[in-house]
Write a structure and sequence with these properties.
single chain; Endonuclease, Chain A; 2 domains
Amino acid sequence: MPSASTSRPPPTPSKALRGRPTQHVRARVRGGCTAGKEVPVMSTAEPGTRPVTFRAMFVEELRARREHAGLLQREFAEKAHVSVSSVKQYEAGKKKPGRKFATWCDEFYGCPGTFERLYDGMIAESYPSWFGPRVLFEDKASSVHEWEMRGIPGLLQTRSYADAVIRACRPYDTEEELDRDAAARIERQNILMRDDPPKLWVVLGEGVLRQAVGGIHVIREQLDHLLSLAEGQGIVLQVLPFAVSDAPGVDGPAALFEFEDSPPVAYLEGWGSGRVVKDPREVAAIATALSMIKGCALSPIDSAQLITKIRSEL
């Protein structure tokens, strides 16, 4: 997790993705456009006010293509098998759609990769450039394996804990910057509420649980949240206790992402930096280290009991 990353403006999109007043696309829209013909899709942006974020570009593209196809929001929602309220929120930029929706839009409008590329940019742009790739891996992964001994990982944090961690090393940031980054961190957790969430396996160092981040009230709430998550399906939570001697993992945190249709990728993180690992031999070594950490850790049941014990001592 980015423990105290400095807020940064969104990355500047490449020329290929910048807002276009007029764009010609090969439309195969199942609802108003003629298959195989080049048709213009008009941008709704006024000159000089083109969108500068990937989210704004996704919203503009979504609305412009729907309107060009002659579809009402209700009609489009029926075809996409989503609620009308969701379509309204997507087009207002108030709700982030899922990857399956972006992929469906590419197929529906006959523009392979367009919405999915904008979606990838939208997912990553709220984070520092070194952390954005990790968020994309989370979104695409079928399984996520993580070892952490600095703090609770972002996918498992409560909002209060996230606020406390982000504020701890950023005394000069504005309230708006702090709130924005905390909200972005919590938004990552939406992947756990999908119909097909990634399988999550996390091992925490015992010290993580005993560090009273944000004060007693905040850490109690956080430990309660961990216990609740541990009881659910799709999440395996283990604790590596202090008592384990010669335990692996002292080199630092690590994450491994597995995908259904591509090789696994690892991610290593340090102070204000992150490194994506794709070399098969290095990925295999990290996978082995994570397996050793899991083997040294308490079982999920014993881990929950330890969390409960620590919670009672606060």
